[in-house]
Structure formats: structure tokens, C-alpha cells
Amino acid sequence: MIITNNVKKTKRILNVQKLDNKVIGFVPTMGLLHEGHLSLVRQAKAKSDFVVISIFVNPIQFGRGEDYGSYPRDIKADSKLLMEEGVDLIFCPNQKDMYPSDFSVFVDETELSQSLCGKSRPGHFRGVCTVLVKLFNVIVPDKVYFGQKDYQQALIVKRLINNLNYDIKMYVLPTIRENDKLAMSTRNNYLNDNERKDSRCIYEALSLGKELIKQGETRVFVVVDKMKNVIMKKRSTKIAYIEILDAVNLKSLKKIKGKILIALAVYINGTRLIDNIAISVK
Ligand code: AMP
Fold first, then answer.
1. Residue 180 resides in a domain
2. Which of 42, 208, 230, 267 sits at 20 to 30 Å (Cα–Cα) from 182?
């Protein structure tokens, strides 16, 4: 397994693989890997000949006052995990190579990023799209792997690949959860024992939403209100958003029908966690 922060070296290695007709699988991450990330890595391994993982905490997708500085990093532990998975290359670029002092070109998605996390974290998806285009240009992957946990991100990346004519096949894989159903996330590391217990309300709220809809409730505000009550029962929580949207275009719904997304972002004493469920309603 090669570990490098060097852009030119990474390009050179991947060129050789391409000349050899190898299928390049790529999983972009911000590191401190957990089973959610590893589920993507395993699929990449199963479906491609040469697997690249990037580890880069991307400063431009964090807003002011967010956790860029404190975001946990442990490249040693990550490398060990990825070695065990049989990954071929870890690309962990330097900040100055990704964003030189004259950096002034950004990639902006202007439709799908208007709601949910795009609304509550202005500039977030501009940062995500920009870093992904840079990573795609260095690695030139044939296949990329993303998690449904970041549903909006996955939709935006699909649009980006399509709109910018990348020849990349994208796979979106299911959310991996802890035993108590909390979605795995690097940010779960911020939670103390009490906060960790409180965080169960996130999946409880999503499940309640799903159940109400299954029972025939079609009014968005009724479902959202009941979900809010579940979250607000815990003193440590603050709701950033709870929304039920069209799962294809992320537009708001008059009535719950078709393929829909129930999505939320909740702070547990300052730790921002997101989760979602997508369902089809007749
Ligand atoms: P991150 O390191 O948080 O930027 O995540 C890197 C990739 O892993 C993204 O495509 C995420 O959607 C995906 N991911 C993160 N958590 C999970 C999870 N619990 N289950 C599945 N995929 C995940």
C-alpha cells in the first residue's frame, strides 16, 4: 500500500494503472475511519482493480465557528485499517497543494444545495464540490463510492458528475449504524456517555416519521411536529432542521407521496449530527 501526499506522484501512479487498463475505484473521506467508511472501501475493493482512498479534512467545506480545527485526525490508525482492507493507495494531500495562496476557482451546485445542509451550512456544498472536482482530476477514477448517510451530498455529486461530463460510475451505499441505530459518524467521537444516549432520539424520530407515513399520514407538518417532539424531549438537543422532501429533487412537498426523504440535522450539545431515511409512498 502506498501512502502519499504528493499530487504529481499520485497522478503518475494512476496513469500507469490506467495504461494497464486497471479499473480505478475511489473513496473520498475526511479520515478517522469507521465501519461506514469501510463498507464503501470494501465495495470499491470488490468492484475495481486499484483502490484509492483520499483522506483530507477539507477546510473550505467548514463554516466559521464549525469544527474544522477540532475535527479528529489519526492517519496512523486509518492507514492500519486500510492496509487490512487491501487498499492500494492512500492520498492525503497537503492543504497548500489543494489550496495554494492564489486559490480563486470554485465549483458551485446551485439547485439541490439550496435546502437541508446547504441552507443550514452556507457554502458547505461549494466546498464539497470544489474539493471533489480537484480529487477527481488528480485520481481520474472509473468508480466512486459515497454513503447514503450524506444523502444530499450524494445527490449533488451525482449531478456534478453528470453536469461536468465526468466518465465516472457512482455508487451510493446504505448507512451503517451502531447497534442502537445511531448512524456511524466521525463526529460521534465528540459525544460523552449521556450525549451518546440522547443521540438515540435521532433514529427514534426518523422511525416515528416513517411509521406515521406508513400508517397513512400525508401531511408534512403533522409528521414533522411529532418528530420534533421526540427530539425536544432530550435537554441536550437543538434542531437545525427536520424536513420531508421529494427524494429526487429535494423540493418541498404539498402532500407526502412518491419517493420521499425524511432528513434531519440535530445538535447534541453542539455536536451536529445528520441522518435520513428515504421511502416510497404510494
Ligand atoms: P466523511 O469522512 O464524513 O466525509 O465521509 C466519507 C464518505 O463516507 C461519505 O461518502 C459518507 O457519506 C460516507 N459515510 C460516512 N458515514 C457513513 C455511514 N455511517 N454509513 C455509510 N457511509 C458513510
1. no
2. 42
Give mean pLDDT, residues 76-104. 98
Using most ligand atoms within 8 A of CB, pick from 30, 35, 37, 277 the residue to mutate for ligand 1: 37
Q: How far is the C-alpha of 250 from the C-alpha of 243, rounded, in Å?
A: 10
Work out the average pLDDT over 72-77.
98
Alpha-carbon distance 183 to 191, whole Å?
A: 13
C-beta of residue 205 within 8 angstroms of C-beta of residue 264? yes
Domain span at residue 229 reads 186-277
| Structure confidence at residue 213 as a pLDDT band (50, 70, 90) | very high
102 shares its domain with 199: no
Q: Ligand 1 pocket, 40 CB below 6 A?
A: yes
Q: Decide if 89 contacts 1 (C-beta within 8 A).
A: yes
Query: Do 236 and 124 fall within a single domain?
Result: no
d(CA 47, CA 54): 18
Hey, whose CA ends up nearest to atom 22 of ligand 1?
Answer: 147
Chain centroid, CA 138 distance in Å: 20
Quickly count helices (H) and strands (E) in the chain: 10, 9
Cβ 147 under 6 angstroms from ligand 1: yes
> Does residue 179 form part of some domain?
no
In a domain? residue 282: no
Residue 181: inside a domain: no
Task: State whether 98 and 14 are in the same domain.
Answer: yes
% pLDDT > 90, the chain: 99
